[in-house]
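ping. complex inputs:
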Amino acid sequence: MSVEAQRTRPGAMDLPLNANDQSAPLWWGMILLILIEVVLFTGLIVSYFYLRFYAPEWPLGGISRPDLLLPSISAVLLFASSAPMYWADSSIKKGNVRNLKIGLILSLLLGIAFLVLKGIEYFGYDYNWATNAYGSITWTIAGFHSAHVISVCLKVAVVFTAATAGYFSEERNLGVRINGLYWHFVVVIWVPLFFTLYLSHYVF
Amino acid sequence: MTDSAIRPYVTRDTRATALAALTAVDHKTIGLRWIITAFAFFIGAGLLALTMVTQLMQPGLNVLSMEAYNQFFTMHGMTMMFFFAVPIMLGLGIYFVPLMIGAREVAFPRLNAFGYWVYAFSGIALWIALLMGRAPDAGWFNYTPLSGPVYSPGINVDLYALSISFLEFANLVAAVILIITIFKMRAPGMSINRMPVFVWSILVVAWMIVFAMPPLMLATIMLALDRIVGTHFFRIPGGGSSHLWQHLFWFFGHPEVYIIAIPAFGMVSTILPTFSRRRLVGYLPVVLSQVIIGITSFGLWVHHMFAGELSVLAMTFFAASSMSIAIPSGVQVFAWIATIWTGTKLRLTAAFYWAVGFIPLFVIGGITGVMVSAPPFDWQVHDTHFVTAHFHYVLLGGSVFPLIGMLYYWFPKMTGRMLNEKLGKLSFWLTFVGFNIAFFTMHYTGFHGMPRRVHTYMEGLGWGGPMLITWIGAMIVGAGFAVTLVNVFISQASGEPAGDNPWEAGTLEWATTSPPARHNFDSIPAVVSRNPLWYALEQDADATPAAYELPDNDRMTMGTSTLDGEPEQRLLVSDASIQPLVMAIGGTVAFYGALVSLWLVPFGASIAFVSIVMWNWPGRNREKEQS
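pong. complex structure:
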């Protein structure tokens, strides 16, 4: 009746402990978190265009369409931040903790630069979230994305501290790599958001 | 079979201290908490319903004030949908999925504990508000502009927006945990086509939550922003759109119905084969039907908005897609009937009664569902008791009946004691008869124009008589559920000992003791069939696969490949921790603090941040990369 009355076999202890690759539950967890975030951002983009296509004019209330220069500079900085993160990931796969830390710091600085420029841009506008629906959706999208940049920067700071404490090595670095994966997500999601918030005014 | 020693009701942790209770992470402890909490909300929301039907029993009554009535129907709907129906399914999944797939834990035990705390805190906050007379009062789907700052000033709807967006963390966390547990932690040999149907249904529902809950979270956060910081998403004068709320809400809201119903299909597909003594007829079509319903449910949401402003094309599309749901639902109904029909030696237990009783109720609810999916018909009955009757047949008949059946089925596994069969059948007959008296009558009152959500009505409209019949039926339903409640209390103290496998069922949760030990299985079972325990009975002892030895003192379980269930790795299960509770408290401060001062939002978020860093900080032992 019961399976436990059955024979048993050894061998399970030969399996690796907590695989350091994409079969790890942690890797799957990050993929699913990113998927949930993609659905959230998609909802924001759909809401933007829903409001836009029912609006008599866009932007509403005589607000001028956004200038592209400053947003483009900050976007380039954000996109550039993925490179040192990639370098950091591949460094720790070879066991190089020093380059890992340098890569993390470079990405962190670029992320902070992006946030500063976003702040300058948005607090320079003469409208805010309470002005009208255009202000609400643009401030919310930008604010929501900036909140992601802040949180991923905090995450990098934590990973940096753990790296300093010597927790990562050639054999054990999944924590670094899922952090990198999330960083790349926060960068890449800015592509459709940048199109929505800025370029779409000039396209249609 | 009945000789195993009865363990205490709660066997989780040997240290029975308050700290152990607050730091517990075992999936059985957490799952049981979800289940008990959800049933507590079910009882509360049921009492609200009985009070409302008493108010409506005769014209012109004043049992409840208008304000109280608004809060009662809103809280009834919210509690049943958000705090009972989805959580009970997730709770059963958290408790039973690891047992059914031969694992010792879920994927992220601490995250699992965090999810429970979030669920409990958000539900309790709402019920405290109800006791203080400040509960949400704009309906469970909370349409703007009624729920906006102009027409609903006051804290009531703020609590709706914040509680629902906070609650969704719990649902999403549980969904992610269940997906990864099912994909990565099945017993060796349990390829994806050997998974129990209940596990399939939980997998489908978890994926649906991943896609359905974020839009709801977004909508409730946007509403909270409209109400608290003055944005204009749903406020028409500022260029917002009240239709946007409806789209976002129902893009979640329609899948929500199937998030509740699909696990119930899985339950029926579990109970019927066990008591019909045969394999489920049509495993593949039943599983595929559930997957198809899961996917199609995302293309139906606009049928809730037929009474709004829509193009003919949109109405035609959504009417057709809504009707198409009847096909995969019908496939399952025929599979269940065939399973009973071709069964050998049917055993007519209470669990079997509840599962069989589900079939006609679900079919009636399905037929009225096809009726209301036709726009011209929908316009006639929109917002009447006909719709109320329809969705109670689907939700109460189609979901709660299998759920109570599952309670009778799994109670012995959870407690080591059998529920009383006679009381179970009495409870079934009371509920079944009372349910039909109450809700079938509501089709009639709906046809005669009785709207939903009215505080009272005038004499001479012809509704008083049928409403009295509905009241009688509702009271019988209440008595029926009360019998099961009494049964649970009596049986957990003095029920018959259950033994490991009282029903002679075929799935793995019955291979361990009742209640299961902390580590679930002494060795990790290996699987070569869909019903491993039946397979073991049918084959020679030598033909059944040997289980894998794995020490349990290290909190270790096995990780297998996603499709084939080949052994890949050993997984360390994380230990108890206080951080999930601290982080949930931080989140509570951040969300509800917004009502007091916006500065509490970053404050609460800081608590949560510190807590999550401590929670995930690489530990002294090998559990580093398990959260």
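The longest helix of chain B spans residues 66-100.
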